[in-house]
Amino acid sequence: QVQLVESGGGSVQAGESLRLSCAVSGRTMATIYITVGWFRQAPGKEREFVAASSWGSGTPDYTASVKGRFTISRDNGKSTVYLQMNSLKPEETAVYYCAADVFLRKSISFQERDYDYWGHGTQVAVSS
Question: Of 29, 64, 69, 34, which is closest to residue 49 (Cα–Cα)?
């Protein structure tokens, strides 16, 4: 079992920044062996992939719309994954979830179904 707890959400103006944190716990295997992803779900929309940090090297990957503005990073010693979000846009208002993929894939999956464990989410609201 893996437990994930998100924090850092809030309300900001367009163009401002937020940093989300995802605390990972509960698995005997070290966090380094877990791919951790961030997804978001806007009101009335499907949940979508935002970014992920791969197991092992921590190689990041991003959905196209956030490249250059969002940065995912991880501190395996603290079992925490961060999502730095800059230049936020109103359309990025959503509940942001972190999720864990414990299958040691060769590349990051963007598919929600490949993530086995989920946090409860943190709300991000961006006003214009």
Answer: 64
Of 96, 98, 95, residue with least CA distance to 115: 98
Q: CA separation (Å) from 25 to 1, 33, 72, 84, 90?
A: 9, 12, 18, 21, 32
Residue 51 has pLDDT above 70, yes or no: yes
pLDDT digits (tens, 9 = 90+) for 11-36: 999 999 999 999 999 866 677 889 99
The three-state (H, E, C) secondary structure of the chain, written as one string:
CCEEEEECCEEEECCCCEEEEEEEECCCCCHHHCEEEEEEECCCCCCEEEEEECCCCCCEEECHHHCCCEEEEEECCCCEEEEEECCCCHHHCEEEEEEEECCCCCCCCCCHHHCCEECCCEEEEEEC
Q: 């921590």: which residue's tokens?
A: 58
Provide the pLDDT confidence category of residue 1 given band limits of 50, 70 and 90.
confident
